[in-house]
Amino acid sequence: MEEFLKGVKGINSFSLNDHVSIIQINNDNENFQLMAVDDKMRVLWSNTYPGYALSVDRFKGKVVALVSTDHSFFKGANDTYKAYLVDPATGKLIVDKVIYTGPNEYRCFAELSTGNGDYMKLLVRQTGLKRSMKVALPGPFAYFSFKAYRRQNIQTTAMQILDYDEKLNVASTISPIISNGNYIGTSWNKHGDMFISWLNGPNIEISRYDAGKTAPSNQMALDGEFKENKDFDPADLLSFKPSDVDNNVLYYGMFFRSQDKQMVLNIGKFDFATNKKEYSNEVFTKDHLKQIKKNFVPIDKKIDENDAGDARGFGIKYINEIDGKLIVSFAANSQLVSNRGSYFMEATTIINGYDKNLQPKFQVLLPSKSGSPHRTLETGYHFVNNKLHIISNSTEHSNSGLYAVLDVNTGNWDKMAYLSKKHLNKDDFSDGPNILWFKDCFLVPYFDPKGWTQSSYNIALQQNTY
User: Fold this and answer.
1) What would the mean pLDDT of 305-319 be, rounded to a whole number?
2) What tens digit of pLDDT does each residue of 73-93 get?
3) Buried b or exposed e, range 95-123, using 16+ CB within 10 angstroms
């Protein structure tokens, strides 16, 4: 265990190789650090730059960090984006450049994608929400203010996708046609082909753009009718994953409510070369949930937080194509609101395995429930050598990390154990997406919230072996 950072706002990270990871640290919403950490918990280099940290990834053998140039408490991040290109071996800055300048009148969201580092694409989506201080109506009327703000935030008024060369110059630009419906999301495969999806009621439409092309090569739609709702963000229930094997294939997972008001898990596979669609549905009735709970056999009787919660709160947490199989995890989220504030809860995670034709192969439970007054706690996933390594938070065990290893060939758990919380506070929680996975060990970042707003953190790193 090592005290790592003090008073920071958050981190982003990625694995550079089997022995080194890169971390982007939001120091104070105005400056950020880039840091290389090895599997011995040594800091190889560290540099500080101006900007509000957004994301970090690999690009053409270098490290690329994306920031916005300004951020405020009331307005959020502006839409002038800057990129830093850094040598991963030395930390030396190679290029820093403003790569996109927006009007800064409306709130924007930026998404960086680099695949395996072979390309660099930036998607900028402009919303209908103005970047100005928001004032809610008094008392119970505040609900209508926040509803209007949410609707404007979901709305898409403009969009650009920019492709950059190794010197961070714009190589090409795509301006997709803006649908009248709700934007869902964009995914890229390793080749750089783009899949962009809209809820254009009653259809969910997905367009494919071949790498380097400015017009879609094909469009497919999910079967069924979906009610459009300007107050609802469909991205909350729908997740996409391009195939790592076939550039023409896109997987998705979503939940919807059937006509008899049952929650249904819908897993799909689209082949944009043949226009073939494949589906697999699972209906979560009360009896089905009871049977899932009954079928669970813990490999350790001390680890038995078996409560899938309310199916109406189900959402996709992880979807990935692994060794010819599709692995999907999902869990129910809920929020408890009182005069003391909010408490974010996540029930037991359910993990499904499917073959390449979406035939169900196994279903297992990760018996861990989490809760936090700060945010929904996320689970970490890492696949290597036919094993899916998972770390979640367990509220019933003082937010101890539950480490589990799933054999994706058999659908059986190989290992399940609580990580030690020695030298950690009871309320410290692990940050799943930023676990540093190495060849022979992994480092778990534990966040200790600080201040009366608890918006900054001290972060400790805990070293563990597989």
Assistant:
1) 92
2) 777 889 999 999 999 999 999
3) ebeebbebeeebbbbbbbbbbebebbbbb
The first and second tokens of residue 326, run together, are: 């599709």
Measured on CA atoms in the order 32, 37, 41, 47, is the torsion positive or negative?
negative
CA distances from 69 to 83, 143, 148, 204 (A): 10, 32, 27, 35
Cα distance between residue 211 and residue 119, in whole Å = 10
Alpha-carbon span 374 to 380, nearest angstrom:
18
Phi and psi at residue 366, to the nearest 5°? -100, 100
Q: Which residue has the tokens 């919303």?
A: 127
Structure tokens that stand for 422 in this block = 């020695």
Q: Is 340 left (phi over 0), alpha (psi -120 to 50) or beta?
A: alpha
**CA separation for the pair 431, 397 (Å, rounded):** 16
Comparing C-alpha atoms, which of 16, 11, 166 is closest to residue 88?
A: 16
DSSP-derived 3-state class of residue 433: helix
Residues 6+ apart with CB under 8 A from 416: 298, 299, 300, 303, 367, 402, 403, 404, 405
C-alpha 248/C-alpha 220 separation (Å) is 12
**Pair 183, 206: CB distance under 8 Å:** no
Nearest residue to 421 via CA among 437, 402, 449: 402
pLDDT at 383: 96
Which residues does residue 276 pair with via DSSP β-bridges, in sequence order? Answer: 271
The DSSP output letter for 259 is T
Closest CA to 99 of 173, 186, 29: 173
